[in-house]
Amino acid sequence: MKQSEYPEWEMQSRLLNKEEVTDPGIVLDEVFDYAHLPEWRSLLWEWLKITVSGTYNTESAEYDRSSILYMYEKLQKLIEAAHLMYVQQEASKQLEKEKERHIF
Questions:
Q1: pLDDT per position in the chain (104 positions), as tens?
Q2: Where are the domains of the chain?
Q3: pTM (predicted TM-score)
Q4: Beta-carbon contacts of residue 26 (< 8 Å; ≥ 6 apart)
């Protein structure tokens, strides 16, 4: 689906606070303060196994369930922060193109 096919409000952050919108890098800090890269890999693998095998309710301890929910929220924020960075990068590229056109 093309970006233009979504309503404008769908392209806005829902979970990021004002500070995180201003500096999306804060979300990266939060994500890697929660777990380092090898831990994220392990968490995602466990999440996938539980989801695919259908053993979520029978094998997941209360801590595991809350950990998965917390991780899900962090990933949502990470995706929103990455989207903001992408939009900012694209706007910067567009400005550079505009400058180049006016130079010549």
A1: 676 788 888 888 899 999 999 999 999 999 999 999 999 999 888 888 887 887 666 555 666 778 888 889 999 999 999 999 999 999 999 988 888 887 76
A2: 3-103
A3: 0.74
A4: 19, 20, 81
